[in-house]
Amino acid sequence: MSAVVVIPAAGEGLRLGFSMPKAFVPLAGSPLLVHVIRLFERIKHIQGIVIVSPPGYEDFCRNEIAEKNGFSKIVDIVPGGNKRSESVNNGLNVVSDKTDLVLIHDAARPFVTVTLIEKLMSSAVKWGAAIPAVPVIPTIKSENNRGFVIETVDRRNLREIQTPQVFKTELIKKAYAAGDIESEAGTDDAYFLEKAGIPVRIVEGERENFKITTKIDLRIAEMMIRKKKQS
Ligand code: CTP
Ligand code: MG
Questions:
Q1: For residue 161, what is the enclosing H or E element?
Q2: What is the share, in percent, of the chain residues with pLDDT greater than 90?
Q3: 72 exposed, middle or buried (CB, 10 Å; 0-12, 13-18, 19+)?
Q4: Centre of ligand 1 from the C-alpha of residue 35, in Å
Q5: What is the pTM of this model?
Q6: For residue 231, what pLDDT is reported?
Q7: Which residues are CB-contacts of 5 (< 8 A; sequence separation ≥ 6)?
Q8: Which residues lie near ion ligand 2 (Cβ < 5 Å)?
Q9: Counting atoms of ligand 1 from 1, which one is nearest the CA of 7?
């Protein structure tokens, strides 16, 4: 079986608020993106890694990320777009149709485990599309434009969705080709399959696989790594 991972890393990281793109922000001394690549380098069934770089940082990715760390599976570094979906689309365009599976994983999720990745890959082989999810914990309410509660949402079948999202190559390519890539609603990849009427299998995700979005997330990530080193 052949598999390629596309890593969208082109975001600005506005909510994190550093003066550099989020993928290059250091976590325990290495850029976030390096943590993520390191992990996929270790997975036997993944032959290729496509990096979607912040536009203008392609050489930086080649020299400071790929070469400096001696990564051997990076097959392409392509520039991203304004939206995550445009970035992913640029990455998908360089994946060969002959590849069996495409994984798409945020550069901002450094704690995904090999176990979860392998579980998702098996599920995608069986079902065509598999995404990780965890139950929504907080109480969720909707608010009207005057600042009052409209209603409480029944959270029992709500799920918080993570990456990697794993797809048979032909399905994800077809879904992206048919989709509105500029849609505000397309914040993950499975969205485009849903729109195309293609079933998406949900696999139990991991709480540790959270996305680093704000400064508090980065602090928690630092603490998690320190703890791991101690144990
Ligand atoms: N991403 C991307 N291209 C974009 C926007 C996002 O490749 N135009 C990537 C990010 O680099 C990240 C992942 O998609 O790995 C998830 O996006 P998010 O956490 O929203 O990152 P940013 O868009 O960088 O952050 P923010 O929304 O706070 O600016
Ligand atoms: Mg964003």
A1: strand 159-161
A2: 98
A3: exposed
A4: 16
A5: 0.97
A6: 81
A7: 40, 46, 48, 49, 50, 102, 103, 104, 105, 164
A8: 11
A9: 15
Contact present, 44 and 127 (Cβ < 8 Å): no
For 174-196, what is each residue's pLDDT tens digit?
A: 999 999 999 999 999 999 999 99
Task: State both tokens at 115.
Answer: 């176990």
190, 103 contact by CB (below 8 A): no
Residue 161: partners with Cβ closer than 8 Å, 6 or more residues away: 131, 132, 133, 188, 190, 205
DSSP 28-50: TTEEHHHHHHHHHHT-TT--EEE
The tokens of 154 are what? 């029944």
Architecture of domain 3-130+162-230 in CATH? Alpha-Beta Complex (3.90)
186 in contact with ligand 1, CB cutoff 6 A: no
Hey, where are the domains in the chain? Answer: 3-130+162-230
